[in-house]
Here is the input.
Amino acid sequence: MVRNEPLPIDIIDNVDFYYVIMDIPGINPADIEVKGGENYIVVKGKKLKEKFKNYILMERFSGKFLRKINFPENINIEKAQAEYRNGVLYIKIPKLKNEIFIDTSVKINIIFRR
Here is the structure.
């Protein structure tokens, strides 16, 4: 099952870049995937449930998630950068300026920092 409610994000519009900041604590960076195309990115992944028994209350999210973000301008997904630090995913995506983008899906490598 994929999480239906959106994960909290901030999107910052800079002159040359878009910055996406997404809170996804407790995720193994290997379980996060960021892909994009001409004017969008997709962030998906999974958070494994803790292996405890006898829960009295369970409010923290576990399972799969997916978030698609559309931008008003075309982006250069091939030059995008992502970093996962302290439970927050930071994605810097250059805007496409006087360049031609061939519409293919590109995976962004994520740098993990503690």
Q: What stands out?
A: The longest strand covers residues 40-47. The radius of gyration is 16 Å. The mean pLDDT is 84.
